Amino acid sequence: MQQNSNSFFEIRDNVFAYISATNSSNCYLLKSDKLIIIDSGLECDFKILELALSKIGVSSDQIDFVFHTHGHADHFGGSNFFPNAKLWMSKHDAEKLNSKDSNFTANYLLGSKLIPNITNFFDKNQKFKFKNFELKVIETSGHTKGSVCFYEPSLKILFSGDTIFKGAFGRYDLPTGNLLELKESISKLAKIDYSMLLPGHGAILTEKTHENIAFLSSMLD
After folding, report:
1. Which structural domains are found in the chain, ordered by start?
2. Are 155 and 193 in contact (CB under 8 A)?
3. Is residue 32 predicted with pLDDT exceeding 90?
4. Whole-model pTM above 0.85?
């Protein structure tokens, strides 16, 4: 599968991926009756992201929702630039942002200044139903206390944030990270039937997804 840096490419009908070439997170766009962005990267890279969106006919003011996998600046820094979007995050991580806790958000590490105000919080096991998609919220603490993944069951796609990647798992040594919770979250993801892994950083995985998570589980045993 083609994975161009700094451009969106379609990986399934109306599902687009932007694989970051910088410290920003990957970003994903779902086109349905609403336009949904999953994670928005660093604020300093937003112009690149905006240009990439324009090339597939989407402007920043058309985005209806930004769903965040967790509260680190490389995943939320561009969110203020979607003026009409509702911003969603877990309550735990959102409260850290809303209190301007730059130690938690890692703004100081990433050279970021903007911290959006989050007013919409995911409920446990929440489901979002759109015309073409359904997104299930899966709580996956470990990288941060409030980390979540998103699962689209009909397409068997897992948006994993910084919980798991191709051949790696997320750090657990940052504020509110926890190794035991990360192990439990990975065990939870191992029970989900997905055939495509869309992580917060690095390459998309479209084959041997079960072997990948079994390998990650073995690393934590």
Report:
1. 8-220 (3.60.15.10)
2. no
3. yes
4. yes
